[in-house]
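Input record (one chain):
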Amino acid sequence: MTEALAGATAAKVAPDRLNISRSHAVRRFKWMILLPLILMLFSLLTPVLLLQLYFSFHQWTVYLSSWWNADFVGLDIFESVLTDPRFGWAMLRSLAFAGGSTVGCFVLGLLLAYLVYRPFRGQAFYYALFIVPMLTVPIVIAYTGQMLLDRSGPLNDILSRLSGQDIRVLWLSIPILRSLP
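The corresponding structure, as predicted from the sequence alone:
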């Protein structure tokens, strides 16, 4: 009788121990995925935030030769922005635009999703019309990449300015490899 009770207790303990180890493994996996993302986000945002903080206390313009030549003005920029009578209306318009565009995108997206959910007459035309904007993004990205890597594009221009030589690399050309006879 005692052996049967011990066996039943061991059978109950094993699934609980399995669930605990599984939940511990899931928690560890989540942190293994999230920790590098958090570190990357922190390492990318820290310099940007520090630079923004520097710019908010200095009178810097694009026309200055360096960031370090900017005059320290302290809180004068904040004072001039917050006391400007146009600031309140600008904030109101920005909030109205952000809220309206968010609600509009949500409603429009919900309506478009509903059209996909139920079959209707002309659905093939709708699908084609629905997919075309999704196809334009990769086309624009490819065209932008082609322009950047062009023989007289910005990448070659930056390399030319840094090296002091005229660099005209054909980044998108395919080299012809000839095999030796």
